[in-house]
């Protein structure tokens, strides 16, 4: 083994210095790059105290955050829970930025610091840098600068327009934060040259495929012609629009420029976190898989001593612990456990596949390249598609997964279990349960009454009869009306029958005085 | 890879957020604070655990309801179920163990701890002490170090680099220490001359000797000499403390019921909190009286009753005595609050008024008279003592008086007495 490793030991003691951190990091980097082939941002390890960890918690994990009471509330609650021993703090927080910032707590033992480095500075870091969702939707290089800007800008607004006025806008923007996300890339506007080129192409296509017979066909009744002015209005306003904050920022008639900028800031932050929501299980699975491999290798190399290894195993097993559904500790599927189990399973399939695996995963079974296969998966998938693609019958049997159908009226019915007939159904149902879009209401702005009272019309398409939470919806609508400046309506319609199920209305707050 | 030690960064990064949060929840916190204040003793605990409803602190989001509709649940650890089994619906419509609100934000109340300062600030917001004076500058509550010039010795951390280098530079110039570039240039020239053979050996020898002298000089004259070194000097500047004494006077004769004493206690407590926010040091003197007055400790003050008549002036005399003995006027801000049910021996009133007017009121920053009455009092006619004090107040002296019958009146009355608005402060006296 290398000279470095011969001298250096990682143990469960809490006595460590910065040079130890650096050596551990270098050893881990060696394993991560050579064996696992990870490609990471340079990391920046920041050693913090537990109090600073609480601080970092409250600002939803970003090192810089503008000021708002909700962060103070979160801090008060976390602090109270922590001080009374109801919850312990995370060992680390990692930020999707370039350089990748990893907070580690000073109280951790050296073995835990090594675990944290392997988990966050390599596992999460690799995922952030490579996963397609993060690459497409977040700008790791720019986020810290942007947050710096956001913080200063909002502080400046508070000075200029008063804390209360800024707070009012932030409250409203936060209420709509989950609707401040674009789920699909926006279509860019055409420039003139582009438009001319398309026009020419279109004409050429028409000339090439001209057939006089088309002229003789009877014209069908165009459904669009029923409401030509609605179509025109929707086109002008860019409707329907799912990103409510975006629409308000661009189109709300009464907002001041600084208010629009605040909406934009909140929208950007929501968008930055959106990939994390969709890849929670994979992200944690990736980090857990990486730390498991690295810590074991460190132990084999003799760098991690037996005490440190035991401490690591204790921590690792509690992280990936999955209680059964009838266990009092059960609170849903543990994303760490599922992610780790799936990735271990993929590694197994590539190395020692069974006949069943060859049938289900002909592409990867027995290809002998577990890390390459996993790296590809980490790039291309999110939780939902990852499960749909890679959940194997073997794992379904191992975890004894079963799917239950609940129609909110009669008894619950077991729809599928871990048997030949159930694998596909269980897999599909599990994938659906990780699909963020299916668990968020499908709300769009559909129309504005431009001729009348400028009422903003929103629509929630209800799937499977799952409606909005009433009380919250009413409050959010009040916020929306405040930003829009005129009345707003939200109609819940059934996605299949188009039947109106319920509707909410709200008006803007009466002017003071 | 970088390692950064953030542990020494300033703490309390979220303080601004906390202030915003407290402001947001102010009404509820105030209610909770008042409730807490009714429980605690006069000097109170060091921090306050507050439990508030999160209603105005709710952060609404558009999200799917937790109930209703058609759902599918996936759970691990199947033991006996086979496809098609029916499971009776668990109570509250939870299936397969899932349920509750999606963001875990469903608790409707939560507890957190207010620091003592925050507690007092909220409690006494908008109140002001009348006639706050800074006295007693001799008492100190510590010292702040302040920059005061330079010194020749000190800790390495206090080294003043600019001043040190300035001294070093002037010394080097004065002693004509050759700069390394100069020596290098000469050496180069010597090398060039000796190589080309342009100069005669004499010149070369002279040049070499000059270089040797310069080298020696630069060795003898150091770049930085210990006499150059300067350190920042700090001087401890004492922080003056402003101190106040608070006199609590109370009638403990048989006519004062436990209820009345409770009212008085609450008032004293508020006054103490208020003073301790404004003054670094607050002392309390408890004086209880029947027909004789005695200085006692807090416990005795509030607990036991004594029998006897009521002579108010004895308490005032005792106060004057204590004042003269222990609290010189130039060092102490003096506050006094008297609680009584208004009974007094009629013959004593003139004496009490005279004492107040001549000895006490001139010395006091503030004198408050609180007349406590039974809870069920319907008709509150003014008592002899009230009328006597009222004459003093009307004469424009600094005496504040209020009548209190019920616990709930204490806080409003206190706020009136110390309101920033002078009109509010003086109403009810006339």
Notes on the protein architecture:
The complex is a heterodimer of chains A (513) and B (430). The longest helix of chain A has 22 residues, at 257-278. Chain A starts with a helix and ends in a 7-residue tail after the last strand. Among the domains of chain A are: 3-131 and 279-308, no CATH class; 326-437, no CATH class; 441-506, no CATH class. Chain A has helices spanning 3-7, 18-34, 50-58, 69-83, 110-130, 132-137, 143-161, 163-175, 192-208, 228-237, 244-251, 257-278, 280-300, 306-319, 335-351, 355-360, 370-380, 383-390, 393-399, 423-433, 436-439, 470-484; strands at residues 43-48, 92-95, 100-105, 402-406, 412-416, 442-448, 456-462, 488-494, 500-506. The radius of gyration of chain A is 27 Å and the shape is globular. Chain A has a 4-stranded mixed beta sheet with strand order 6-7-8-9. In chain A, strands 1-3-2 form a 3-stranded mixed beta sheet. Chain A has 513 residues and is α/β, with parallel strands linked by helices. Among the domains of chain B are: 156-233, no CATH class; 241-426, 3-Layer(aba) Sandwich (Rossmann fold), CATH 3.40.50.410. The longest helix of chain B has 21 residues, at 258-278. With 430 residues, chain B is an alpha/beta fold. In chain B, 38% of the residues lie in helices and 21% in strands. Mean pLDDT of chain B is 77; it is low at 93-107 and 134-138. In chain B, the strands form 3 sheets. A 6-stranded mixed beta sheet of chain B has the order 10-9-8-11-12-13, sandwiched between helices. A two-stranded antiparallel ribbon of chain B has the order 2-5. Chain B has a two-stranded antiparallel ribbon with strand order 6-7. Chain B has helices spanning 15-24, 26-39, 116-123, 161-174, 180-196, 201-220, 258-278, 298-302, 312-326, 349-360, 384-394, 407-417, 422-426, and strands at residues 2-5, 47-53, 71-75, 86-87, 109-115, 140-151, 231-240, 243-251, 281-289, 293-296, 333-340, 366-372, 399-404. In chain B, helix 10 runs parallel beside helix 11. Chains A and B meet through helix 2, strand 1, helix 3, helix 4 and helix 8 of A and strand 1, helix 1, strand 3, strand 4 and strand 5 of B.
């Amino acid at each position: 083994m290398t000279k470095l490793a011969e001298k250096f030991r990682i143990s469960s003691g809490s006595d460590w210095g910065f040079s130890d951190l650096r050596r551990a990091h270098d050893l881990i980097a060696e394993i991560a790059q050579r064996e696992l082939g990870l490609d990471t941002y340079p990391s920046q390890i920041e050693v913090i105290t537990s109090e600073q960890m609480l601080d970092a918690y409250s600002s939803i994990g970003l090192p810089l955050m503008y000021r708002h009471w909700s962060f103070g509330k979160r801090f008060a609650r976390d602090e109270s829970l922590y001080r009374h021993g109801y919850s312990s703090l995370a060992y680390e927080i990692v930020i999707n930025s370039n350089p990748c910032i990893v907070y580690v707590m000073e109280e951790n033992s050296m073995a835990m610091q090594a675990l944290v480095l392997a988990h966050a500075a390599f596992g999460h870091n690799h995922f952030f840098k490579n996963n397609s969702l993060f690459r497409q939707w977040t700008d790791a290089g720019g986020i810290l600068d942007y947050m710096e800007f956001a913080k200063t800008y909002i502080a400046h607004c508070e000075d200029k327009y008063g804390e209360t006025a800024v707070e009012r806008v932030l409250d409203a923007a936060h209420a709509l934060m989950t609707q401040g996300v674009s789920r699909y890339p926006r279509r860019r506007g055409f420039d003139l040259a582009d438009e001319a080129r398309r026009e020419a192409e279109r004409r050429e296509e028409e000339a090439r495929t001209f057939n006089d017979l088309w002229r003789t066909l009877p014209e069908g009744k165009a459904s669009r012609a029923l409401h030509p002015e609605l179509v025109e209005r929707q086109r002008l306003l860019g409707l329907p629009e799912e990103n409510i904050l975006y629409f308000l920022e661009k189109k709300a008639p009464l907002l001041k420029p600084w208010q629009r900028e605040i909406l934009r800031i909140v929208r950007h932050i929501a968008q930055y976190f959106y990939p994390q929501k969709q890849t929670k299980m994979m992200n944690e699975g990736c980090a857990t898989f990486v730390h498991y491999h690295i810590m074991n290798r460190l132990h084999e190399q003799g760098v991690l001593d037996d005490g440190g290894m035991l401490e690591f195993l204790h921590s690792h097993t509690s992280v990936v612990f999955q209680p059964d559904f009838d266990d009092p500790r059960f609170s849903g599927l543990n994303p760490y456990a599922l992610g780790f189990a799936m990735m271990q399973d993929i590694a197994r399939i590539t190395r020692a596949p069974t006949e069943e695996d060859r049938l289900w995963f002909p592409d990867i079974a027995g290809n002998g390249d577990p890390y390459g296969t996993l790296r590809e998966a980490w790039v291309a998938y999110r939780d939902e598609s990852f499960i749909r693609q890679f959940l194997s019958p073997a794992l379904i049997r191992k975890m004894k997964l079963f799917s239950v159908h609940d129609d909110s009226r009669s008894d619950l019915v077991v729809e599928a279990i871990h048997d030949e007939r159930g694998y596909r159904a269980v897999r599909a149902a599990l994938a659906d349960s990780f699909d963020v879009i299916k668990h968020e209401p499908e709300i769009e702005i559909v129309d504005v009454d431009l001729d009348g009272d400028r009422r903003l019309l929103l629509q929630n398409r209800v799937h499977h009869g799952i409606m909005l939470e009433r009380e919250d919806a009413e409050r959010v609508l009040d916020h929306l009306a405040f930003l829009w400046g005129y009345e707003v309506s939200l109609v819940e319609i059934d996605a299949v029958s188009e039947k109106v199920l319920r509707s909410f209305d709200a008006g803007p707050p009466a002017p003071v005085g | 890879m970088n390692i950064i030690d953030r542990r020494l960064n300033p703490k309390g990064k979220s303080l601004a957020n906390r202030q915003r949060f407290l402001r947001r929840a102010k009404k509820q916190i105030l209610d909770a604070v008042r409730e807490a204040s009714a429980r605690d003793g006069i000097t109170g605990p060091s921090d306050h655990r507050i439990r508030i409803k999160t209603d105005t602190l709710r952060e609404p989001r558009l999200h799917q309801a937790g109930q209703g509709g058609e759902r599918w649940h996936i759970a691990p650890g199947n033991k006996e179920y086979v496809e098609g089994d029916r499971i009776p619906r668990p109570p509250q419509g939870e299936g397969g163990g899932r349920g509750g609100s999606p963001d875990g934000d469903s608790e409707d109340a939560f507890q957190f701890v207010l620091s003592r300062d925050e507690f007092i600030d909220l409690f006494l917001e908008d109140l002001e002490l009348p006639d706050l004076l800074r006295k007693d500058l001799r008492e100190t509550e510590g010292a702040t170090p302040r920059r005061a010039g330079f010194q020749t010795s000190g800790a390495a951390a206090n080294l003043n680099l600019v001043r040190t280098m300035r001294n070093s530079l002037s010394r080097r110039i004065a002693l004509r220490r050759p700069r390394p570039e100069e020596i290098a240039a000469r050496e180069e020239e010597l090398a060039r001359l000796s190589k080309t053979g342009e100069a005669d050996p004499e010149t070369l020898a002279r040049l070499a000797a000059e270089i040797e002298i310069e080298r020696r000089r630069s060795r003898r004259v150091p770049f930085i000499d210990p006499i150059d070194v300067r350190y920042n000097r700090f001087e401890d500047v004492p922080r003056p403390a402003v101190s106040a004494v608070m006199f609590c006077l109370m009638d403990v004769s048989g006519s004062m019921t436990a209820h009345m004493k409770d009212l008085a206690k609450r008032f004293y407590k508020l006054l103490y909190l208020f003073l301790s926010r404004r003054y670094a040091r607050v002392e309390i003197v408890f004086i209880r009286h029947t027909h004789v007055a005695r200085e006692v400790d807090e416990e005795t003050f509030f607990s036991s009753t004594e029998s006897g008549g009521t002579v108010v002036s004895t308490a005032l005399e005792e106060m004057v005595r204590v004042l003269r003995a222990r609290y010189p006027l130039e060092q102490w801000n003096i506050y006094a609050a008297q609680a009584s049910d208004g009974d007094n021996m009629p013959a004593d009133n003139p004496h009490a008024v005279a004492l107040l007017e001549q000895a006490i009121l001139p010395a006091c920053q503030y004198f408050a008279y609180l007349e406590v009455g039974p809870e069920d009092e319907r008709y509150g006619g003014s008592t002899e003592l009230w009328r006597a004090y009222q004459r003093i107040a009307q004469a424009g002296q600094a005496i504040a008086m209020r009548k209190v019958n019920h616990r709930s009146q204490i806080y409003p009355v206190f706020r009136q007495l110390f309101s920033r608005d002078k009109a509010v402060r003086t109403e009810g006296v006339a």
